[in-house]
Specification:
Blueprint: H1 3-31, H2 35-42, H3 46-52, E1 66-69, E2 75-79, H4 94-104, H5 116-127, H6 137-152, H7 157-161, H8 167-183, H9 186-196, E3 198-200, E4 203-204, H10 206-214, H11 223-232, H12 245-261, H13 267-275, H14 296-307, H15 316-325, E5 329-332, H16 336-350, E6 358-364, E7 371-376, H17 419-428, E8 436-438, E9 484-486, H18 487-492, H19 496-504, H20 510-518, H21 547-558, E10 563-564, E11 569-573, E12 579-581, E13 587-588, H22 594-610, E14 631-636, E15 642-648, E16 653-659, E17 671-675, E18 678-682, H23 689-700
Parallel strand pairs: 1-5
Antiparallel strand pairs: 1-2, 3-4, 5-11, 6-7, 6-16, 8-9, 10-13, 11-12, 14-15, 15-16, 17-18
């Protein structure tokens, strides 16, 4: 090294020494009470600078993990920007408290926020060319609080954590540390520090670090584990035991040396800990609904509900920050006793599923609107157990999912499961279930005189005017049913011509729309738009409706006409345990008249005993019965590619779906297909969706009310139907 270079280096050290000495003088002057000291320092303006620095530090709660829980408190998922779970000091191992003090600030319990002895020691070391810090634990805590505040304002965490500090920054931290020591006890500062400090991108704070590196809680850390984590804070990358195990052990042992030197451990404890292997047991945190322990898609639905609720922030960006940083506890309506069987059943229904058939189950509790289960036979990420991967939620409206903005599937064509709506309109007008209608009629021409008071009915069925845009003559699924029959039989046998004859017999076609509105029949596209029943094809389920909407509509029948808005969140509490939100139960008694709902249920019970539901059979060909009072309706679209069974007991209303959930139904017809090893010439609602519903309901019905339904008044049933010769 040349003389000039050597001289420059020496002068640099001298200048650094003088500069830091001046800083010490400023601090000393700032802490001195006598006026003479102030007068002395004021000559060079240093005290004025020190006095101008802020002395108050607002310690806001650090980022914490938000938890989404099932109704019984079991975990669903976690969400966070920083994986942190704050714990009180008495829930931390004494070894971690002693280790961090010993290695980072052994005079912690003696100084008042800054350690002048440490500063002088660091000055001498630095003057000699050795690098040594002088920050106390209190100063480090202040530094971390300031970093978190900057990050909370949107700065990149890496930039903040790796930023360079000026002497002004250090002075500011020193003054804040002095003030902090006057406001908080040593234990409060140590607790705050250990909950805040950065250990790893997967772990902020000692609880998260303990769980990540060793799969134990902070209170259960052993001495060598605690020493390793205490050493890690000085250089999270350099001492990362996953990638630099030798560095980590060397640093751990240095911490153990410090603990021995300052009397925290005995020589034997020290020697045993030094010999201990690392024995990492990594437990990487998996956050987000894609890694939910149960009910991935329900989790995503819940997250969407929160992110669209102004109670959690003025904008969606504000609400996202609240969720990701505030340590909320979101308790939901999900019942794991139902969710487990629901998931198992949808996974089993389609098996390996090379043709990508979608299956789903969603259950709502009648009279409350609580969503109890939501399952489908897909996963959000590859490698999670099934070969059908999608972010779309089959069970909800298109706008009712968060994820990657793909949203819900947007509903599917419900087919004949819409027929009870026309039945409800019929009953609302005081007509009876046993009234006969002319189901032989197949032509409803363009000029048919529908009686309506609210809208113009559109659509027509007439072979003679297909060139003008009408549909062909009305068809039933099977021949032999074109004859007079009761409204009741038309529903339980699912006869299209009987349905149209029922609609034609209404005093006001608009009563169908009123019934649909009362049942909350929202369009699958979402945005709160109700389906428009003025198009004739929609009487047969030609629109798209989400399974959740269907399950909730049938829950209105089960609860004697009480409609409840579906809810998924019972409470939201902040990190201090204070309730800040949740979804209130919103129900509308008499949305349908109770007698109307009871009469609809009475008809839908026949579906399962002598109608289309009689075809719900097991693999041996035996009809599956629940063994309790139940009611249901099947549904199938014209391509046999959207199939349903929506059914209920008094306490559970479940929509079971099987079909083409994502693509064009016409492009994936359900004819001549093999599903789960069984060949089907044509799929019907009773064939796959039906057994799925029955097997699931058998497992879960006992958890909720499954007593008898309330009987309908005889005035809505009518006299027994006469014996009419029929050709079927």
């Amino acid at each position: 090294m040349g003389f000039a270079s050597s001289t420059a280096k020496g002068l640099g050290k001298l200048l650094a020494f003088l500069l830091i000495s001046a800083v010490c003088g400023v601090i000393a002057a700032g802490l001195m009470a006598p006026a003479a000291a102030v007068t002395w320092a004021a000559a060079n303006g240093s005290v004025q600078f020190f006095d101008s620095l802020p002395s108050q530090l607002t310690v806001t709660p650090p980022d914490q993990v938000t938890k989404i829980l099932a109704a019984d408190g079991s975990p669903i998922a976690t969400l966070f920007d920083e994986n942190r779970t704050s714990v009180p000091l008495d829930q931390m191992s004494p070894d971690i408290k002693n280790a961090i003090v010993a290695v980072e600030d052994y005079r912690f319990y003696e100084h008042g926020g800054i350690d002048t002895t440490g500063i002088i020691r660091a000055l001498i070391a630095n003057f000699r060319g050795d690098r040594q810090g002088a920050s106390t634990l209190t100063q480090q805590y202040v530094s971390n609080v300031l970093k978190e505040d900057v990050i909370a304002q949107g700065a990149n965490a890496d930039v903040v954590l790796n930023g360079q500090k000026t002497i002004g920054d250090k002075l500011r931290e020193m003054k804040l540390a002095i003030a902090l020591e006057q406001k908080y006890t040593k234990d409060q500062i140590l607790q705050g520090y250990l909950n805040l400090v950065f250990f790893n991108n997967n772990a902020y704070g000692i609880e998260a670090a303990s769980e990540y590196f060793f799969s134990v809680h902070a209170k259960d850390l052993s001495l060598p584990q605690a020493a390793l984590l205490a050493g890690l804070v000085n250089g999270p990358s350099v001492y990362d035991p996953r990638v630099h195990p030798d560095n980590a052990i060397s640093r751990r042992n240095l911490v153990l040396d410090a603990m021995l030197e300052h009397g925290y451990i005995s020589q034997r404890q020290h020697d045993d800990a030094v010999k201990a292997p690392l024995q990492l047991k990594l437990n990487p945190p998996k956050q987000g609904c894609a890694y939910a322990s149960q009910a991935q898609y329900f989790c995503d639905y819940v997250l969407h509900e929160v992110l669209n609720d102004p109670a959690y922030g003025a904008t969606q960006a504000d609400r996202l920050q609240t969720v990701m940083r505030s340590g909320l506890t979101i308790t939901t309506t999900l019942d794991p006793r139902l969710q487990g069987p629901a998931q198992a059943q949808v996974d089993a229904t389609a098996g390996a599923n090379p043709d990508k058939w979608g299956t789903s189950i969603v259950t709502v509790q009648p009279g409350t609107g609580r969503i109890l289960s939501m399952a489908q036979n897909t996963r959000m990420l590859p490698g999670q157990g099934l070969n059908f991967v999608t972010s779309y939620n089959f069970n909800v409206d298109k706008t009712d999912a968060h994820g990657n903005d793909l949203g819900g599937a947007g509903g599917m064509q419900p087919g004949s499961s819409m027929k009870p709506i026309t039945l409800a309109a019929w009953l609302t007008e005081g007509k009876t279930t046993n009234t006969f209608v002319d189901a032989s009629r197949r032509v409803y021409p363009l000029n048919y005189p529908w009686r309506d008071t609210c809208t113009k009915v559109t659509g027509a069925y007439d072979d003679a005017t297909v060139s003008l845009g009408t549909a062909p003559d009305l068809q039933n699924d099977e021949p032999g049913w074109y004859e007079p029959m009761s409204v009741r039989e038309g529903v339980y046998q699912s006869i299209n011509t009987a349905l149209f004859a029922t609609a034609a017999g209404l005093n006001d076609f608009c009563d169908i729309q009123r019934a649909a509105d009362a049942l909350g029949m929202e369009d699958g596209a979402g945005h709160g738009t109700m389906i428009d029943m003025s198009t004739l094809g929609d009487l047969l389920g030609g629109m798209n409706v989400a399974p959740l909407t269907m399950a909730n509509a049938y829950a209105t029948f089960a609860s004697d006409g009480t409609y409840c808005v579906p809810i998924s969140i019972t409470s939201v509490t902040n990190s201090q345990g204070k309730k800040i939100g949740g979804q209130a139960q919103t129900c509308h008694p008499n949305a349908l008249r109770p007698d109307v709902a009871e009469a609809v249920t009475n008809v839908l019970q026949d579906v399962l005993t002598k109608g289309s539901g009689y075809n719900i059979k097991d693999n041996a060909g035996h009809t599956i019965y629940l063994g309790v009072p139940d009611a249901a309706k099947t549904g199938t679209d014209q391509y046999n590619s959207e199939t349903w069974l929506i059914g209920y007991t008094r306490g559970l209303s479940t929509a079971s779906y099987f079909g083409e959930a994502l693509g064009n139904p016409a492009d994936h017809p359900g004819v001549n297909v093999t599903v789960n090893g069984r060949f089907w010439p044509a799929i019907d609602g009773a064939y796959i969706a039906g057994p799925q519903w029955a097997y699931y309901m058998q497992k879960v019905l006992g958890f909720y009310d499954h007593g008898p339904f309330d009987p309908p008044p005889p005035s809505l049933i009518g006299p027994p139907a006469p014996d009419v010769p029929q050709g079927h």
